[in-house]
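Protein modeling request. Please complete all fields; requests missing the sequence field cannot be processed.
Requester role: graduate student
Desired output: 3D structure, token encoding
Chains: 1
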Amino acid sequence: MVQVAAAKTELIEVQKPRRPLVDLSRFKLPRHYRNALENERLQQMWKKQFGLPDHVRVVKVSVSVCPVCNRQIPMVVYEEDGAIWLKKTCPEHGTFRDLYWGGDAELYYYFLQWDSPEYIGNGTANPNTDLDYYITTSGCPFACGLCPVHKTNTVLAIIDVTNRCNMKCPVCFANAYAAGYVYEPTLEQIEYMLRTLRAQKPWAPNAIQFSGGEPTLRNDLPEIIRMAKALGFDHIEVNTNGIRLANDIDYYKKLLDAGMSTIYLQFDTIDPNNQGVWSIGFMTQGHT
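Delivered output (288 residues):
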């Protein structure tokens, strides 16, 4: 009798090779960036401060806010594996690591060439809050207004017209349903916001996006769009999941007739294996 032993198969996880750091010699980076990127002593100090591995490259350090308590906390932006990452730690709520610029670190450095004083704005000539208010309220993000420290004019303004929604997506950037109350400004309040934006100097924004929540849950959205159009907004976007527009063509036509320029559609995933989005976001609407 011949005894045959079954071959033992061992699965070995092959680690994907790490993408090398971008060659910066191709870019004319501003001096303050190049000095920091090429200073090895400074790089090692920042890596130690933020608990980063040696193979990354620190691009800059700054101040951010804790997404839980809004406390100002130090942050670092760094390159790793072909992408740009942000890391910050709140002493109360822990460490947060987010993708800052995904997939193409070279493109990030390309645009970084214009991050210098001659290309950065001087803010608005008529900010909505003054410096005293900015200081007494502990600065950003509590003193927003626009405040006198803000460096750019508004290009595309966004107004949340409601926090109600007809979906419960776990990836909702507005975190709808989490507030525990309904936020829905009146027409008079929205008109005040629009007039405040159009009064900005030296340049008033001509583009507006109505968002939420789900803005199409408001039956008076056409009236809001007409109001924006009358006040001088040439480009009007509606940020929507598209459900009501797909099922109520008359409502859609009212938005168009009122002056809507663009539909800014929600698009989370096409992967049915991404159950966190697929099952909760789509199936709650009866889609299969």
